[in-house]
Design goal:
single chain, alpha+beta, two-stranded antiparallel ribbon, five-stranded mixed sheet, Arc Repressor Mutant, subunit A, globular
């Protein structure tokens, strides 16, 4: 049974906070969407993702212009994703930060699933969604990603990103190009980074803080063991396809006590070893 995607209340709260700056009717927006102000005050709560998407639509009906999402970029970083940004800031390299984003962003925005995979001399970071994403959310996410990754590396955005792809409905193309990032239109939001960029260090990296934050965010090991084997292997297959994490790390994250046990289970289920699966790019 497929569960409805959820988002943390930090996401609709950020949308409403920005709407208030635009002098939009906050109480009316909440009422029309069916969001309770009491629920939004608790950052540990989650609400259906469709309500956050509907909230964007209601903002548009109430007078928000096409730049609403672009202008929400700063609040997305400082309010909605502040905890995640601390984790990403403390990572040792650009690549480590991106891998954390792939792993943990769905905790905040349940319908968003980033992927990172090699594509020739580049790596492509793509944001997929189990729901039809709203251009406001994609605009704020694209600009937050570009600015924050550049800030962490101490570089200009054009030094990190070779190109960007945005959807037909997005409005952030001019801003990306003003940063020196060539922009095209496509089905998904995506950015292209030269391979060598992933090894660039973060000047503000803090390994002790990073590992402590990862332990805090990582689900308990018992949770992995309690998950049905087929589901754990399916998740491991996703990591093999979309990340370059070592097999040992994937085996541990999938709840296996050793790499050999993981390889044995994977081969029994899929008819090939994890390494063969990764090499085939299946």
């Amino acid at each position: 049974m497929q569960h409805e995607p959820l988002v943390t209340t930090a996401w609709p709260s950020t949308i409403l906070s920005h709407a208030a700056r635009q002098a939009l009717p906050i109480d009316d927006l909440c009422a029309r969407v069916g969001l309770s102000p009491q629920t939004l005050r608790d950052p540990s709560q989650q609400v259906p993702a469709r309500l956050a998407l509907q909230l964007f639509d209601e903002c548009l009906v109430s007078g928000a212009d096409a730049q609403f999402g672009c202008e929400m970029r700063v609040q997305l970083s400082t309010t909605c994703l502040q905890g995640l940004n601390v984790l990403l800031d403390s990572a040792a390299t650009v690549g480590a930060s991106l891998h954390c984003l792939v792993e943990f962003l769905p905790r905040w925005i349940g319908h968003a699933q980033p992927t990172l995979h090699a594509e020739g001399v580049f790596y492509r970071f793509t944001v997929h969604s189990s729901l039809t994403p709203h251009p406001f959310g994609l605009d704020s996410g694209a600009l937050a990603l570009v600015h924050n990754m550049a800030r962490r590396a101490g570089r200009r955005p054009a030094e990190l990103f070779a190109a960007a792809q945005i959807t037909a409905e997005q409005s952030c193309g001019a801003q990306l190009e003003s940063l020196g990032i060539p922009c095209s239109r496509g089905e998904h939001l995506a950015v292209l980074l030269p391979r060598e960029v992933l090894s660039w260090p973060h000047p503000g990296a803090n390994e002790l803080l990073h590992q402590e934050l990862r332990r805090t965010w990582q689900p308990p090991q018992a949770t992995s063991h309690d998950t049905p084997a087929a589901e754990r292997l399916h998740q491991a297959r996703h990591w093999l396809r979309n990340t370059d994490q070592p097999l040992e790390s994937i085996a541990q994250r999938a709840g296996y006590s050793s790499s050999s046990n993981f390889i044995r289970a994977f081969r029994s289920h899929y008819g090939m070893t994890p390494r063969q699966f990764r090499q085939r790019g299946a």
